[in-house]
Each structure stands twice: as C-alpha cells, then as structure tokens.
Amino acid sequence: MTTQPPERQLARFLGLFSFGLGAAQLAAPDQVNKLIGVRPSAKTDAIERAFGVQELSAGQGIFALSPPTPVLWSRVAGDIVHLGMLARAYQSKRNDRKRLARTIAAVIGITIVDTYVSVRYQSRWPKEPTQGRPLPTGSSEEEPFMHASVPGNPAITILASEAEIRSRLQQFNIEEFGQVVVTRAPGDRGTEVHVEMTKSSNPIKKVIGDDPEQVVRDNLRRVKQLIEVGEIVRSDATPEGISAKRQLKQRPAQPLDEKELAKAGGRS
Q: Which of 88, 107, 126 lies at the terminal end of a domain, its last residue?
C-alpha cells in the first residue's frame, strides 16, 4: 500500500485528539477548566460539556466521512469560537491568566494545523472520490482530471497500490480494450480501476460471452484474485476461473480431463 499523504495522517491525528479531548470535557469538565485556567462553576462546566459534545462529533465525522473536508472546516470555525471565549475569560481577574495564556497559544497552534489540513483537503479532494474525478497521485507531473467512471464501464476496487496493479493489467492486456483510469479508493480501501471503453453494438457477442466489456470484467476479477488471494480461484465446475462464457455452459463439478487440466494450469 502507498504511504498516506500528510493531510490524511494529520486528519486522523485530529480525529483521535477530538475523541480524547471530548471525552475529558464530558467526564471531568471542572478539571479541564482548572487545567486551562478557567475558574470552575456550574456555567463554565456546562460550556465545557457542550464543547465536549462538539469535539466528539468532529472526531466521529473525520473518521466517518471520506473526505472529511466539511468537518475539518467546522473545526476551524470551532477553534475561532474557542479563542473568542478564552480571550473573554482572560479578561476576568478570577481566572488564572498564566494558564489561559498558555491555553490560548495551544489553541492557536491547533487552529493553524486545522486550517492547513482543511486547505489541503479542499484543494486535493474537493469532492467525494467516487463522484467522477480521480484523486491526485502526488507525482511531480499531475495528470489532468478525467472522468473516473461512466455507468456501464468495467470497474473494480483492489487492495493494492497502482504499481502492483499496472503489471497485472498488462499481463491480461486490459489496456488494449480502453483507457485505464486508476484512482485511490475512498476510506483507504485500496485502488479503484476503471476502464473507459466504447460500447459494443453486437448483441450476439454479449449473449455468447464474447463482448469486450464482459471480457474486461472477467479479467479485472482475475487481476483482483491474483493480487489479493495469490491465485485465480477455480473449481471443477469452472476450471478456467470466472468467465462470462461459462454462464452459458454451466456443468456439475467433475474431475477435469487432460485438456481442461492443461488449460487450468494444473498440468504442463
């Protein structure tokens, strides 16, 4: 698998940070207030608990959405609100101004990180990855955005990097059937492979399993099996592996004859 980009690593850190801070604010708001320099009271404890709910919601959103751009921007807005309330608390002589000064500096630092991650996500992943544009690969020469998927075009998600997949695509000559678009799958679930190809106008080929689109779909499944399982899944009922043609000539499982065994790779 490819290394995660820095903004995704930082986003995960911010999500975990939100979970930890939110849990502390809900469980012990008075202790959190003392720690940041605010004098505990019924009012300040209630405010701290409200912020705890906000932090937990942000943490959940970061891990639930892909990309979590809206949640990250909401964190920036929350940071600004927090800074305003801390500045107001700093004006009160009842509070510990030294601790509040350190807290304000820390929140400013978090705000900078939140803003950086939000801007990076906004520029690189402005939409959901499955809505038509491939994610940038991070290479020095960024390819122009292309439509990643068209309804009906063969597509599959494989738990591997683009480099691992490309060699297998060449093995089955998939790139000869159309333009291959490779993008990151949402949620770090691997790599999406889309083959943009012209639709066949021959209905007979589709019926007999020789339609190019069906051939590409079969081969994409074989690529996925080779990479994720290590071999093409076969059985005595389908010795050649998954195939649209086999749907027309299904048979009970039975021992293979010499020709079938050789075709399946079991006998040289």
A: 126
| pLDDT tens figures, 162-211 | 888 888 888 888 888 888 888 888 877 788 888 887 766 555 555 555 67
The domain of 206 spans 155-233
Please, what is the Cα angle at 17 between 13 and 19, to 5 degrees? 120
**In 172-190, which positions are buried (b, 16+ CB within 10 angstroms) versus exposed (e)?**
bebeebbebbbbbbbeeeb
Sign (positive or negative) of CA dihedral 40, 44, 49, 55: negative
Q: Dig out the tokens for 149 from the structure.
A: 């998927």
Position 186 in a domain? yes
- In 3D space, the residue among 241, 157, 244 whose CA is nearest the CA of residue 200 turns out to be 244
Domain count, the chain: 2
Q: Per DSSP, what are the bridge partners of residue 156?
A: 193
Helix (H) / strand (E) element for 223: namely helix 212-228
| Residue 110 and residue 11 share a domain | yes
Instruction: Identify whether residues 122 and 10 lie together within a single domain.
Output: yes
Distance CA 92, CA 103 (A): 15
Give pLDDT tens digits for 40-66: 999 999 999 999 999 999 999 888 877
